[in-house]
Each structure stands twice: as structure tokens, then as C-alpha cells.
TrEMBL record:
Organism: Ficus carica
Record-stated family: Belongs to the caleosin family.
Top-level lineage group: Eukaryota
InterPro entries: Caleosin-related
Entry protein name: Peroxygenase 5
GO molecular function, one term: calcium ion binding
Length: 202
């Protein structure tokens, strides 16, 4: 179980306890970028800070923070009787936030499924073998829809539209390497470095 493995993820570094995301359960690494103080919990202001760090504007960062934290907080806090109005997301339980109508690239425990990732491009990359156009992305979302799964469809649409917005290249293509990098969170780290570097040049 991802949650039991994640219980050992609190480690001490330089006298401070920090949450170290699991290498096996890649979904934790994806989410951990937004855990700005590395305590294993993501609050809306941290989600906002994470989006700003990768170069997103204030409107997108605000909407993303509210949508993501409100959507995932309750799901990642199993056993809690009362909602927390600060809407924290517990990374060790992030796999509980998986929704329907998705690509299946994360399994039910938050592990990366290579064959499902490859199927995205095998089935939908018609123009270029290693990239998706905006039209092909819409096709992907349509093909992944599950009947009567309104919340899952909304979640999938929001995730892919944000990914397209932050990761498309100058030709409007979503490159395979960038899509792969978002699954383990490394794309966020790359974008943060690029944004930080461009700010220094201003």
C-alpha cells in the first residue's frame, strides 16, 4: 500500500524533519513540488507559490490553488471526521485523489505505468510521433471519458489544460518528454529554474 510505505518518508536533514517523496510511488514526487516547506502537507498558499514559481500568472495560480486543494483535501485525509477549512493535502495519501476518466498512467497506488504512458502517443499522436497537438489532446480527453463521470472529466480537463498551458512549445505542441516529466514532477523543477533564470536577466 502506498500509504504504509509513505509512513517512512519523514526523514531528518540538518536537524529538520522533511517529507521525502517515494521513488516507487511517482505520484508523490509529482505532488511534492508544491510542498514548499517539505513537511508532507500542501496548503493552498503553497500550491499558489508553486504555480507562481513555474511562471504562471496570479489568476491561474489562484484558481489552481483553490480547485486543487478543495478537490483533494478531503480525499487525502481519510478517517478525518471534520473538514479542514485550510484544505491541506496529505502527500502520503495522494493516490486517494485519483479520479476517473484519466489516462491510467498512474495506477491505483500512484505508481507509473509505462505502457499506459506509451498508449497516449500510440493512440493520439497522429501528426508527430512524439508530440500532441491541441486537437489531439482534445481527442485524448474525449476517449478517456467514463460514462456519468462528471467530476472525473472536469478533473482530467483541468489537469491537461494546465499542462498544455505551461508546457507547450512555440509551435503549440505538447512534447512527449515534457508530458513524461510532469508525471514525476521533474518538469515543474525545470520550469522553476527557467523562470528564476529569466527573472534574474530582467
Amino acid at each position: 500500500m502506498a500509504s504504509s510505505s509513505a509512513s517512512n518518508n519523514i526523514q531528518e536533514e540538518n536537524g529538520e524533519k522533511k517529507f521525502i517523496p517515494s521513488n516507487e510511488f511517482v505520484l508523490q514526487k509529482h505532488a511534492a513540488f508544491f510542498d514548499r516547506n517539505h513537511d508532507g502537507v500542501i496548503y493552498p498558499w503553497e500550491t499558489f507559490q508553486g504555480f507562481r514559481a513555474i511562471g504562471s500568472g496570479i489568476p491561474l495560480s489562484t484558481v489552481a490553488a483553490l480547485f486543487i486543494n478543495i478537490s483533494l483535501s478531503g480525499k487525502t485525509r481519510p478517517g478525518k471526521k471534520f473538514p479542514n477549512l485550510l484544505f491541506p493535502i496529505e502527500i502520503r495519501n495522494i493516490q486517494r485523489g485519483k479520479h476517473g476518466s484519466d489516462s491510467g498512467v498512474y495506477d491505483s497506488e500512484g505508481r507509473f505505468v509505462p505502457i499506459k504512458f506509451e498508449e497516449i502517443f500510440i493512440n493520439h499522436a497522429h501528426t508527430y510521433p512524439d508530440a500532441l497537438t491541441k486537437k489531439e489532446l482534445k481527442e485524448l480527453l474525449k476517449d478517456n471519458r467514463e460514462p456519468k463521470d462528471i467530476s472525473g472529466r472536469i478533473g482530467a480537463l483541468a489537469e491537461w489544460l494546465v499542462l498544455y498551458h505551461i508546457a507547450k512549445d512555440k509551435k503549440g505542441l505538447l512534447q512527449k518528454d515534457n508530458v513524461r516529466a510532469v508525471y514525476d514532477g521533474s518538469l515543474f523543477e525545470q520550469l522553476e529554474k527557467q523562470h528564476s533564470s529569466s527573472k534574474k536577466k530582467e
